[in-house]
Amino acid sequence: MAVQGHYDTRALGPDTTAGMGVQLLVLEVLCRVVGLGTAGWLTGSAFAVVTWAVLTLALRRSWSGPFGPANRVTLARAILVGGVTALVADSFDRRAPVAVLTALATVALILDAVDGQVARRTDTATRLGARFDMEVDAFLILVLCVYVAMPLGVWVLAIGLMRYAFVAASWAWPWLRGELPPSMARKTVAALQGIVLVVAGAGIVPREVAGAAVAGALALLVWSFGRDVRWLWRARPGTRGATPTCPRAVPDRRPARERAAAGS
């Protein structure tokens, strides 16, 4: 979406500020219900402040108009992710309340399918909204990887770090920022990561089964990234016979993996 017009901080301030306030309220509830410790409280509070600061800065730089219902759904997901982050940070010193952590993560994953639908039905889809959605998804997967890595091993972190490694690689090799065609396989593999990690973290299956499932999810993710990298390599600018990128009404300059993760 081409952003035009004047940005009014008063129109968006209540949404982002209210989001931080609700995040702190959720942390207080966790303190009273499950006994959230100091590490969890501090980590959750830092998550709330950083989310508010980054989102506010992004809105000021590239937004015009109301915050919108889809972004409110994504903000609600971010609040749930903040709760999961606090519980995972607390689990290093004590046993985490698995049922609460699993419930928060599950609702956050379910809402991932809601904000996109709301954006399309209300005609409020934007690049910034898609980026916000993608960042919340990526961070939730990373946090779940940290939690599951405690019983299964640090290799699980590869799932959460792969997207960030891809983005870092695109700084060195700009052709990785090319545009990927839509892919149902890519979306399915991305969704599978969260489901498998939640099940593995919930402890409802034997450790060996959980390890095999997470390893399988990692293998699928490697395949998905590898396939996309291969496509981008063949379609890079200046390559003979490069496959043309998919047409868009408005140029989208986000890195390729971000657009893919956002479901665009």
Automatic annotation (TrEMBL):
Keywords: Membrane, Transferase, Transmembrane, Transmembrane helix. Residues 240-264 are annotated as: Disordered. InterPro entries: CDP-OH_P_trans, CDP-OH_PTrfase_TM_dom, CDP_ALCOHOL_P_TRANSF_CS. Residues 250-264 have a biased composition (Basic and acidic residues). The chain crosses the membrane at residues 39-59, 95-114, 134-150, 210-226. Belongs to the CDP-alcohol phosphatidyltransferase class-I family. This is CDP-alcohol phosphatidyltransferase family protein. The lineage of its organism: Bacteria, Bacillati, Actinomycetota, Actinomycetes, Kitasatosporales.
